[in-house]
Design a protein that fits this description.
Strand order of the largest sheet: 1-2-3-4-5-7-6
Low-confidence stretches: none
Structural class: alpha+beta
Mean pLDDT: 91
Shape: globular
CATH class of the largest domain: Alpha Beta
Number of strands: 12
Distance between the termini: 25 Å
Number of domains: 2
Radius of gyration: 19 Å
Helix content: 25-40%
Number of helices: 8
CATH topology of the largest domain: Aminopeptidase
CATH architecture of the largest domain: 3-Layer(aba) Sandwich
Order of helices and strands: EHHEEEHEHEEHHEEEHHEE
């Protein structure tokens, strides 16, 4: 099915207010968090990219990034820093996020770069599924309270912990996910057939919300599955204390994993008995998920 939207570069001060307005809709209640027109224009005049998704003349999605530098043992190395992506609430779950990131991938490759980074909340299952399973990004960096105390309606009240993703855009891993025949999504039945199971037990309260373990379990295997809430925003709205418990448990979990040289290489978002479940896949050393693909 052909998408009912088009994607194009946004480069003029006449169109940039559309990006400002969509930011206000996606991240409400905090005007100071809106990236203003003058910053967006300055970025695109200096190697940055703003891409908009349009339905007729209405902007219903955008992605914004700019050139950056990685620190390496050999000195600074150029990359693209993807700072924001927003989708109109009425147009989510229609493949627009994937299409915007794919367009960004094409433009950054034309700039001669091979690395894109961005951050997201590791407790957001839908974002994890897009970023890791569908786009092929990987993660080995956890940033505590990356943006300090955030005031917008989506993030207020919890520490702004984030994963920083690495998207190596010229690798076969990424090319296979963005090609005409992308890799099928990993399912729970595939992992169970291969003997891979969650490495910590969870219990569910009387309201149906899962609770994290009291302690981070030992990292005994080279392939691990770590479950997180399937709908963290709904959990946060229903039980804020439990949401905080999940924030601090997963902070310790992933910081420990990355210290032990594990890398997040996949995400499973699947249904079991009609209920969604979300799992990160962590790999160590030469371990792979090739047998599942």
């Amino acid at each position: 099915m052909m998408p009912d939207f088009t994607i194009r570069l946004i480069e003029t001060p006449e169109e940039m207010p559309l990006v400002e307005e969509l930011q206000r809709l996606v991240w409400p209640d905090s005007e100071t968090d809106v990236v203003p027109l003058h910053m967006l224009i300055t970025a695109v005049h200096n190697g940055g990219l703003v891409l908009g998704a349009f339905q007729k003349e209405e902007m219903i999605g955008f992605v914004f990034g700019f050139p950056g530098l990685d620190g390496t043992p050999d000195g600074p190395r150029p990359k693209h820093c993807s700072h924001m992506m927003g989708i109109h609430p009425d147009h989510r779950d229609k493949g627009m996020g994937f299409a915007l990131k794919r367009a960004q991938w094409q433009m950054v490759r034309h700039q001669g770069l091979d690395h894109i980074t961005w951050t997201y909340d590791p407790l957001l299952s839908r974002n994890a599924y897009l970023n890791i399973a569908k786009l092929g990004a990987v993660c080995s960096t956890y940033r505590c309270s990356e943006y300090g105390d955030m005031r917008d309606g989506l993030n207020a009240g919890l520490p702004s912990d984030r994963f920083q993703l690495d998207w190596w855009i010229n690798t076969q891993r990424v090319l296979s996910r963005l090609g005409k025949r992308p890799r099928p999504a990993l399912k729970l039945m595939h992992t169970r057939r291969a003997g891979l199971h969650p490495f910590y037990p969870l219990h569910t309260n009387s309201r149906g919300w899962i609770h994290p373990p009291e302690e981070v379990p030992p990292f005994d295997d080279r392939l691990l599955m770590a479950e997180i809430p399937a709908d963290f925003p709904a959990l946060k709205s229903a039980d804020f204390a439990l949401a905080r418990d999940w924030r601090f448990f997963t902070r310790e979990l992933f910081e420990t994993a990355f210290e032990k040289k594990y890398i997040i290489t996949d995400f499973i978002f699947d249904l079991e008995e009609g209920e969604p479940r979300g799992f990160y896949v962590l790999t160590h050393g030469e371990s792979t998920l090739d047998e599942f693909e």
